[in-house]
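Most newcomers find our protein records easier to grasp once they have seen one. To make this concrete, we reproduce a full record directly below:

…
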Amino acid sequence: MSELFEFCKYADGDKNIQNQLSQADSCDKIIDIAQAAGFQISYETLRDSSSALTAAYWFWSGKGKRFRYEFFKKK
């Protein structure tokens, strides 16, 4: 399984990680959170999978496709 998938499974069970992700206003912050938890994910993997990352704890959750596009554009 992919590191991103494993990280998502981990985050689903950890309220502290969920809180951090909900406040992570940049890709670098998300990648740092994942790395601190022992997962290696790349900007490209995160960006390419972002439309499938629909849990409420993702920073772009509920903010629409355009917001998500702009979020990844500002790297």
